[in-house]
Amino acid sequence: MRGALAALAALALLAPAWAARAEPSSPLRDEIALSGDSWLVPGAFNPGRSPDGNTVILKGPKGAILVDTGRTAGHVESIDAALRRLKLRPVAIINTHWHLDHVSGNLALRAANPAITVYGTSAIEGALTGFLADSAAAARVAISSGSMPVSALPDVQGDLDTIARGRELRPDETVDENRDLVLAGRSLSLHVAERAVTARDLWIYDAAQRRAIVGDLVTGAVPFLDTACPEGWLHALDAVAAVGARQIIPGHGAPMNRTGFARWRDAFGDFIACARGSGALETCSAGWLAGAAEFIGTDGRRAKAMADYYGELIRSGKLDGYCRA
Ligand SMILES: [Zn+2]
Question: For a 10 Å CB count at each end of the chain, is N or C smaller?
Fold first, then answer.
């Protein structure tokens, strides 16, 4: 059971070891203005809670585009409140990847705005019958056996409800190859990364703002490697670096400039190389904590526990299956 618990860590379908005391649901988070009629609704990763990814709102002449929709009801309320303040109606959602902290909000947002068109890759098909189905089964076992901490139950039950409606998370428009398109009257380039955070991720380049919105290809405190091919992920970061963005919006954490992104990428590359090597794994997590310190914030203990776990995940070869086509 321990392995099953660990295997679901970042998606936090099961309470991970570092989820000690749960904090109450986070209060509503106000949007942060970015240049060019764009806003960030910050995600959160509070102690004992499952994470919400960031949401980016892009305003166009014909409505708003949402990049990712978070996990919790509180995050969706934050998006709704921002849209009301900005007097915007969403017409499109772009999901960077299928992890539940980025797609769960689709359900409520689509119910409230039936005209929304969802863009995403086909990778969710494999996830619905594979990782998500397995996670749900393991979570139900943990709940019925009493090994699920009570504090984790609300978030986990929310995820189980979302997975039960998993077919509704499928995109209306499947984007499996790079594509330039005009959404809500706004020109965007959708880039596909193969075998990176998931089997196929999307990241968005807004050339007019020189901004890359990259989902979990960049995450503040720790890279969520649960369903990742580390080498494919590094390759995707090369593509992000080559696009010429001045600003990078990560899937979790604050916006970065080019040099901040370069430092994060270096720390990530060093962590992967270390975990692929043969030295002590503790040196890998210590290296991550030092190299990524500016992105980790105050919760170094959790970041260390997660880096320890992911280092072991890489070293054990358990992720290698994600690198095969
Ligand atoms: Zn995420």
Answer: C
Query: In angstroms, rounded to a whole number, what is the distance separating the alpha carbons of residues 319 and 199?
Result: 11
- The CA 250 to ligand 1 mean position distance, Å, reads 9
For residue 293, how far is its CA from the centre of ligand 1 (angstroms)?
Answer: 19
pLDDT of the residue at 27: 75
Span from the CA of 55 to the centroid of ligand 1 (angstroms): 11
2-323 has which CATH code? 3.60.15.10
Ligand 1 ion: nearby residues, β-carbon < 5 Å = 53, 99, 101, 216, 251
DSSP element (H, E) containing 119: strand 117-120
- The alpha carbon of 68 and the centre of ligand 1 are apart by a number of angstroms equal to 10
- Decide if pLDDT at 115 tops 50: yes
Q: How confident is the model at residue 194 (pLDDT cuts 50, 70, 90)?
A: very high
If you measure from the C-alpha of residue 224 to the centroid of ligand 1, how many angstroms do you get, rounded to a whole number? Answer: 7
**Burial class for 132, CB neighbours closer than 10 Å (0-12, 13-18, 19+):** buried
Boundaries of every domain in the chain: 2-323
Nearest to 24 by CA among 51, 43, 48: 48
Q: Enter the tokens of residue 298.
A: 């105050």
Alpha carbon of 103 to ligand 1 centroid (Å): 10
**pLDDT, tens digit, for every residue of 269-306?**
999 999 999 999 999 999 999 999 999 988 889 899 99
Spacing, Cα 215 to ligand 1 middle (Å): 7
Is residue 10's pLDDT more than 50? no
User: Which of the four pLDDT bands, split at 50, 70 and 90, describes residue 14?
Assistant: very low
Please tell me the pTM assigned to this model: 0.93
CA angle 17, 68, 55 (to 5 degrees): 85
Q: Does residue 11 have a pLDDT over 80? A: no
